[in-house]
Each structure stands twice: as C-alpha cells, then as structure tokens.
Amino acid sequence: MNKLDKRDRLIRLRQVLELIPVAPSTWWLGVKEGRFPQPIKLGPRTTAWRESEILAIMQKSWDEK
Fold first, then answer.
1. What Cα–Cα distance (Å) separates residue 65 from each residue in 18, 19, 23, 58?
2. Is residue 3, in this structure, part of any structural domain at all?
3. Residue 37, domain member (yes or no)
4. pLDDT at 7 over 80
5. Mind spelling out the 3-state secondary structure of 53-64?
6. Dihedral (C-alpha) 32, 43, 22, 18: value to the nearest 10 degrees?
7. Given this model, what pLDDT does residue 17 score?
8. What are phi and psi for residue 18, nearest 5 degrees?
9. In the sheet that 40-43 helps form, which strands lie side by side, from edge to edge?
C-alpha cells in the first residue's frame, strides 16, 4: 500500500470512537491489552492512529459475524 494512501491518514481518538463505538476508557484498555493498535504519539498530549488499522479492526469484526 502506498504510504500516502488516503486510508493511511492519521485520525484522532474522537474519530476512532465514531467508527468503533466504545467508551474512551474501553478503548484505552483495549490498547493496553493489545486488542486495539498502539497510537502514534504526535506530541506530549496528542495521539493518533492509522486509519487503515482502524478500518482493519472494523473489517475483522464484520468477518466474524
């Protein structure tokens, strides 16, 4: 996949939670336990995730149903 692919853009927690409707505390627990991808640190108080990784979680969820 091209590194500049639109699906590889970085999205913030609010956008992640719009796609995967869980509570923020549930999301962070999933990150800690390895169920969700690790964030990319952009600054001291700024984290983001690759959109492609979030979409992959969604696809996996659909495939399991």
1. 20, 17, 22, 11
2. no
3. yes
4. no
5. HHHHHHHHHHHH
6. -150
7. 98
8. -70, -30
9. 10-11, 46-50, 40-43
If pLDDT is split at 50, 70 and 90, which confidence band does 6 have? Answer: low
The letter for the amino acid at 4 is: L
Give pTM, 2 decimals: 0.81
Q: What is the pLDDT of residues 39-60, one digit of tens each?
A: 999 999 999 999 999 999 998 8
The number of folded domains in the chain is 1
Mean pLDDT confidence for 25-40: 97
Q: How far apart are CA 30 and CA 1, in angstroms?
A: 26
Structure tokens that stand for 27 in this block: 């999301």
With beta carbons less than 8 A apart as the criterion, state whether 1 and 41 touch. no
